[in-house]
Amino acid sequence: MSSIIDTFIAPPCTEEIEIVYQDEHLLLINKPAGLLSLSGKNPQNLDSVHHRLVKTFPGCTLVHRLDFGTSGLMVIARNKAMNAALCQQFSQRSVTKEYNALLCGHLEHDQGVIDAAIAKDPALFPRMSICAILGKPARSRYQVIERFYHECEDGTLLPLTRVALSPETGRTHQLRIHCQQLGHPIWGCDLYGGRLLPGTEPISRLMLHASALHFVHPITEEWITARSNSPF
């Protein structure tokens, strides 16, 4: 079996974490793009959402993660009991998540479903792969918001589609690899083809933002709906 060597070093992130909501049980935050959710094994990758928040909120833990390049909403548990209750909602898929993304090219259909199992492949690390045999089931929905052209620095017009993405499962890199499978990778995605088209190379970030979270507060039993406007 191939051994995995992670050589990634995160560049410094100067943006602050925005706290959208807080009570004694949980936090809702807006993660900036370019910040790890959890500190890496390499000491140079110490800075992360958890590393920053635990200084102010001792005992807090991550219920779920966002990719390094993804910005947007995350829910943070402030104690172990809350973590267990929220993790149960995520595992039962009762949490509704929505993302805003810019995809390369113009999608043919206004909406659709991507159903493609995702597997780890040490030979491809850190990329995941589509594999019907070894992969875990993964399903995502997309809805087109707008199709437009972005004028690049050299004057060429880059066709882009803004979409709302709703993952029904929570596999690693799910939305990124599913959009590639669709033939329209997320603009700025270095792992799954989002920097291959002419004009896509200079983009500074992954154009993926966690824009909405909908779940039940385990203590108050009230529905919480959080929204965050896309920064792009």
TrEMBL record:
Keyword Isomerase: yes
CDD domains xrefs: PseudoU_synth_RluA_like
Keywords on record: Isomerase
Enzyme class: isomerase
Pfam families for this protein: PseudoU_synth_2
Pseudouridine synthase RsuA/RluA-like domain residues: 25-181
InterPro entries: PsdUridine_synth_cat_dom_sf (IPR020103), PsdUridine_synth_RluA-like_CS (IPR006224), PsdUridine_synth_RsuA/RluA (IPR006145), RluA_PseudoU_synthase (IPR050188)
Gene Ontology molecular function, alphabetical: isomerase activity
UniProt EC number: 5.4.99.-
Isomerase in keyword set: yes
Alphabetical list of Gene3D superfamilies matching this protein: Pseudouridine synthase (3.30.2350.10)
Stated family: Belongs to the pseudouridine synthase RluA family.
Designated name of the protein: RluA family pseudouridine synthase
Organism: Pantoea nemavictus
Lineage: Bacteria, Pseudomonadati, Pseudomonadota, Gammaproteobacteria, Enterobacterales
